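Private note to self, pasted from the team thread so I don't lose it. Backbone tokens:
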């Protein structure tokens, strides 16, 4: 009994030490409070009367949400006089996933704009959230972002969201008070996720790919034949087109100028197809084959060009960045590295200044 008690004591001591180490590491690296109740990316979001958006003042690892529920530093609600206020709207590609802190493209866009305007006041507000679809995005602009009086809205939609099992719809607003995080989450063991992620990183690439294939196959088998998309479903593409047009109209109703970025992915550069990478993308959208994802993203790019042409909207085709040589621009199938985010910021800066009718360049001294 003494041996068993000693062994249990050692296990508990090790677990507590591991958990304390993880929490102290988060505090030192990211500034996350030791007893933060936010235990996953999902807890950075909240649903209230304005729909779904960032939870004000929430922090998780490198992600920090400000006073208005957006990623980035706190801002005044009223736009300061003489300030160029830009809002970026999109999903995880815009919110920032793999980039270092303050290196997601909205933050780098703010730095680039300030440099081109020689330090004149500029604010870039990152209104994106993980998985934000066009209908939810349009609702957020209409119900919440309107009060921030943006001059320009950079719209970066993720078309392949229309290949989810269900068609994208706006988040259902909750008329009650914002949902608070349960107190018990303050003691959620963060070490579990850290160990799980380390284990995944240690898996050989071929084994990780096989496990993803098996997961996709099991999900397909649980649905009727023909459930998976193997090409471009016309109704889903038409829905994307309609939602994009509606969102552009909403941006204009705010008194802001839209700038649309055409979605880029790591396969746009041509060359041999990276099958493991494509399967990792397919694993996020089980209803679509990898070939359907590529075809839909290409079809949506053509649709986006038609929409911006019909609407007279400035656009930036980010697919061109995939053809650039040099350092790696994508951390996975569609999310950027620090370098990739810098390229995006550089490509967007000129059209944003043009949309705001601001002339770049420093006056002679």
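Design output:
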């Amino acid at each position: 009994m003494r041996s068993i008690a000693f062994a249990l004591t050692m296990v508990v001591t090790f677990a507590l030490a591991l958990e304390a180490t993880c929490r102290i590491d988060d505090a030192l690296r990211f500034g996350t409070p030791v007893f933060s109740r936010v235990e996953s990316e999902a807890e950075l979001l909240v649903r209230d009367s304005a729909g779904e958006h960032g939870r004000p003042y929430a922090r998780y690892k490198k992600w920090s949400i400000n006073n208005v529920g957006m990623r980035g530093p706190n801002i005044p609600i009223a736009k300061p006089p003489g300030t160029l206020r830009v809002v970026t709207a999109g999903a995880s590609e815009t919110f920032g996933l793999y980039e270092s802190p303050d290196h997601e493209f909205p933050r780098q866009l703010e730095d680039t704009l300030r440099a081109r305007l020689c330090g004149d006041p500029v604010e870039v507000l990152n209104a994106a959230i993980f998985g934000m679809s066009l209908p939810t995005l349009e609702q957020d602009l209409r119900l919440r972002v309107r009060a921030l009086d943006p001059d320009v809205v950079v719209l970066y939609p993720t078309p392949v969201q229309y290949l989810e099992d269900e068609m994208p719809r706006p988040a259902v607003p909750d008329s009650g008070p914002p949902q608070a995080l349960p107190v018990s989450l303050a003691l959620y063991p963060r070490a579990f996720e850290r160990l799980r992620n380390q284990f995944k990183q240690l898996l050989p690439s071929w084994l990780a790919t096989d496990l993803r294939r098996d997961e996709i196959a099991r999900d397909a088998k649980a649905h009727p034949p023909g459930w998976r998309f193997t090409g471009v479903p016309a109704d889903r593409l038409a829905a994307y087109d309609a939602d994009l047009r509606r969102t552009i109209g909403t941006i204009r109703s705010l008194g802001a100028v839209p700038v649309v970025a055409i979605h880029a992915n790591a396969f746009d550069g041509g060359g041999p197809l990276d099958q493991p990478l494509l399967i990792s993308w397919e694993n996020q959208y089980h209803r679509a084959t990898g070939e359907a994802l590529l075809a839909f993203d290409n079809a949506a790019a053509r649709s986006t060009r038609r929409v911006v042409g019909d609407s007279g909207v400035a656009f930036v085709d980010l697919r061109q960045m995939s053809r650039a040589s040099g350092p790696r621009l994508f951390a996975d199938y569609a999310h950027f590295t620090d370098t990739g985010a810098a390229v995006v910021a550089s490509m967007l800066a000129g059209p944003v200044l043009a949309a705001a009718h601001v002339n770049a360049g420093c006056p002679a001294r």
